[in-house]
Sequence to fold (419 residues):
Amino acid sequence: MMRENIFDWTNGRTFIAGAAAAILLAAGLGGAGTANAASHEIFIGGALSLTGIQAPLDEPGLRGARLAVQAINARGGVLGRNLKFINLDGKSDPVTVGNNAAQLIAEGAELIIAPCDFDFGGPASREAQKAGLVGISTCASSPLYGSVALGDMQFTLAMWNTQMGGAAAEYAFNERGWKTAYVVTDTFIDYTTSLSEFFIKHFENIGGKVIFEDKYTQGAGDFSAQLARMQRKLAEEPADVFFISSYMPDLGMIIRTIRLAGIDLPVVGGDSYDDTGLFDALGEKFGDDIYFATHGYMAPGSAPGMEEFLALHEQVYPDEPLTSFVATGWDVVQIMAQAVEIAGTTDGAAVAKVMEDNVFNFLTGSMDWSSAETGHEPDKSVALIELQDGKTTFLGWTRPTDVPKPDYLIKYLERQESD
Fold:
């Protein structure tokens, strides 16, 4: 899947300091730049959610996208045109997300940024596909987020849960020697169910054993029944590690409930753990022995160009929390800008072809998408993070090996071969 052409946004890193000054002088975050460039802007539409349960994942991405638009405009835009970015709050409602995307397209949007989840982001990408536009989710990791389910111009900036779950499994089994796992799966959305699915598959494929998988539904607010089962099951057969696939606000409650019961097994999870709300909820007392796979680490030295990005974020958003979800929004706009520049047009088919044919390096690692015919499957770097005493530490980048493909893609590829 690796390509010969590799593009890196940090090739233009010298503009970053100047971009920060330009942003601070701008009247707002809607679009700085020259009058000529502004007269025929490239319109990027967003349907990210700022309210409801999806907001903790989408709002940081919106912040990063706005920073990227301003930075790109400060260096002269794309193809001599400024970028214009308008986001309509998806309100954590799939119907609203789809309607907002359709409205933005009707108003002239040429590219679409979709929410960080298949259930919430899929409707925006379907509208983009219908209009012949490239749509990119900031961080939807469901294996459904690709060309088979959504169309040949639709992508996600995230690794799929095949890789995220695989990275967590390999860290637990290979790096830490944890051979048996107890799994808790939040059934509310596809993200959490598929993440557990692929953790379990890969963990068992490399020699691990899952002693039990329990279910929980986001919003229930009560983990007592699951805790009673957990205590009974662990008494019958001890486990080395928990894999808990959930997200805030209930993720914090689940971990606190387990710890208050005196169960101190290490906890492993996915990118939903990359949330300052979780760190605050757990604090020093409960924020121990927790490890998760995510998109990046927001500290100097973790990725090329990170220092400049962090300085820019600090200048524009000094009071806002910083997680890798901010970088996903930045990276989505950067890939849009690079792909349009290379293609020489915003035409959806041409931009999608550039994205398929090249490797791109981001704050969130390197990305190599497969062709539309093979699903737009992402081959993406995965960041591993440790939480101890309520504080995070970057463990490094990884790429799991021989991760299982989702069943639907296997069947799709088999049909393609037989036709």
